[in-house]
Design brief:
Elements (H helix, E strand, L loop, with lengths): L2 E5 L1 H10 L6 H10 L4 E5 L9 H10 L3 E6 L3 H10 L3 E4 L19 H13 L3 E6 L3 H9 L4 E5 L1 H4 L4 H21 L2 E5 L7 H5 L4 E6 L1 H10 L1 H13 L3
Parallel strand pairs: 1-2, 1-8, 2-3, 3-4, 4-5, 5-6, 6-7, 7-8
Helix pairs in contact: 2-3, 2-11, 6-8, 10-11
The structure holds pyridoxine-5'-phosphate.
């Protein structure tokens, strides 16, 4: 059964809209744990648009499940990760102008830069996952760097214009997932997953971790954080 990583970035987005102290993503993490979150995920962006350094430091001390830090393969953020030591880092591509992470990391095109970052993180005992498009050559490159996991980008599945296209994208994810397992890497998925589209992805054989943010935070505004996480987790547990 897949585990649920709750991405709490957008709690910080609301706080940063006023540059105040509330709502605190640290509170959201605690409530997410009460709702059954298996992983707490935050993305420390170079522009610090939502999560701040302080959030990651406090979360490292307070989160009792796995803390997964999403970050770009840049030296300044790597130095920060080496100081805070989250259990897992997921490397993502990052462009300043984007609204959210667009597309997976091009591991092949940035092999040496990614390798430098991955080697330092491994040296500190951090589990490294690479957020990539569901493509065999990117999975092979991830494996060649010794990374423990891939997070396959589910954006094309989530954004598919009609059920036929969505079925095609799901098949793509299934095939890439099978290949990742054959390569011996752990299989994570994320991006654009919602209460409506999560179950077919959760049911992919070998799916181990799903990272979900926007949809959960959106529902949390209506029903509360713990309940929103509980409902998502229930969908994952019952997926077949
Ligand atoms: N996984 C990764 C690597 C991401 O960058 C994001 C977005 O920050 C997510 C998962 C969560 O995406 P969403 O907010 O669409 O659920």
């Amino acid at each position: 059964m897949a585990t649920l990583g709750v991405n709490i970035d957008h709690v910080a987005t609301v706080r940063q809209a006023r540059k105040t102290i509330e709502p605190d993503p640290v509170w959201a993490a605690a409530l997410a744990e009460l709702g059954g979150a298996d992983v707490i995920t935050v993305h420390l962006r170079e522009d610090r648009r939502h999560i701040q350094d302080r959030d990651v430091r406090v979360l490292k001390q307070t989160v009792q499940v796995k803390l997964n830090l999403e970050m770009a393969a840049e030296q300044s953020i790597t130095d920060f990760a080496l100081e805070v030591l989250p259990q897992q880092v997921t490397l993502v591509p990052e462009k300043r102008q984007e609204v959210t992470t667009e597309g997976g990391l091009d591991v092949i095109g940035n092999l040496e830069r990614v390798r430098r970052c991955v080697d330092q993180l491994h040296g500190a005992g951090i589990i490294v996952s690479l957020f990539i498009d569901p493509a065999e050559n990117q999975i092979e490159a991830t494996k060649s760097l010794g990374c423990a996991a891939v997070e396959l980008h589910t954006g094309r599945y989530a954004d598919a214009a009609n059920p036929v296209k969505q079925a095609e994208e799901l098949d793509h994810l299934r095939r890439a997932g099978r290949f990742a397992l054959e390569c011996g890497v752990h299989l994570h998925f994320g991006h654009g997953l919602t209460y409506r589209n999560v179950q077919p992805v959760a049911a992919i054989p070998g799916a181990e971790e799903l990272n979900i943010g926007h949809s959960i935070v959106g529902r949390a505004i209506m029903v509360g954080f713990t309940e929103a996480v509980r409902e998502m987790r229930q969908l994952i547990v019952t997926a077949k």
